[in-house]
Write a sequence for this structure.
């Protein structure tokens, strides 16, 4: 993903400043696993930064101090070597005292936290997400984790299912849909659709373009399945524009038949282009009852 590329590019830039001979080696790496496997001289420091990111996500923190670095196995000098952490200014009245540090972007921290979690035992992974229930960082860390793990563990899938059943937080549901897109497993989408009891309701949830791609993938898996008798979708007042709709409908318009029975897109500004994309998809919905 984009933030993995940002992480690798920053590491490339910073390491080649001090070790130009390593340039070719890093340029041939496009995954974090590849970085660790092919570049052992960096792996220990990189994993310590992942550990720091993980601790921060667990505690919903973005600013770290010397004792936090030491807990993760880092010194103040080491923490900034790979270009992923920077020293930041803070109030002189801060009770912690001393220098403070943060990751260069919140999503970089969450990407590293998700990666670190994916390398834990299954039991530790489940415990991590259980401990993060109610933590505003859960959604993004789970999303990043799914990209690395593909949600292969049955125990983690069971935990995701429990989040669908229990959570009334639609942001968490959107994160789960993003996680399903990262996992790219149609059978898991069908399982989650069953837990949703045939109704995806994201009313009054602001959706990004990326969210719409994930929703489109989920709907394609569910609406094209022969086992789906009918499915309802409500996206009322979700700040959707034409591009959102086109991204969401991209896979649906190429399908032969869609088992959609209800669609609510009211109070969105989808425009003419969005309406065209919707109409193309609806032409495949023989059992549509409400629009």
């Amino acid at each position: 993903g984009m933030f993995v590329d940002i992480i690798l590019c920053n590491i490339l830039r910073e390491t080649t400043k001090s070790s130009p001979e390593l340039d070719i080696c890093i340029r041939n790496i496009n995954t974090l696993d590849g970085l660790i496997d092919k570049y052992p001289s960096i792996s220990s420091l990189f994993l310590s930064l992942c550990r720091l990111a993980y601790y921060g996500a667990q505690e919903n923190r973005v600013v770290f101090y010397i004792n936090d670095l030491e807990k993760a196995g880092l010194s103040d000098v080491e923490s900034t070597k790979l270009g992923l952490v920077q020293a930041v200014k803070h109030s002189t009245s801060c009770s912690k005292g001393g220098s403070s540090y943060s990751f260069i972007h919140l999503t970089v921290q969450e990407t590293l936290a998700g990666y670190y979690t994916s390398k834990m035992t299954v039991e530790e992974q489940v415990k991590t997400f259980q401990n993060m229930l109610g933590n505003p960082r859960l959604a993004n860390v789970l999303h990043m984790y799914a990209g690395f793990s593909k949600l292969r563990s049955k125990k983690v899938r069971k935990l995701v299912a429990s989040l669908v059943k229990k959570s009334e937080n639609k942001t968490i549901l959107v994160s789960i849909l993003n996680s399903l897109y990262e996992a790219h497993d149609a059978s898991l989408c069908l399982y989650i659709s069953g837990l949703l009891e045939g109704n995806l309701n994201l009313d009054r949830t602001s959706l990004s373009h990326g969210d719409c791609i994930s929703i489109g993938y989920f709907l394609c898996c569910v609406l094209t399945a022969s086992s789906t008798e009918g499915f309802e979708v409500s996206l009322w007042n979700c700040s959707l524009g034409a591009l959102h709709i086109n991204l969401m409908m991209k896979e649906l318009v190429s399908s032969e038949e869609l088992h959609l029975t209800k669609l609510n897109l009211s109070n969105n500004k989808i425009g003419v282009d969005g309406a065209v994309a919707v109409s193309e998809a609806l032409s495949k919905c023989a059992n549509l009852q409400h629009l």
The mean pLDDT is 88.
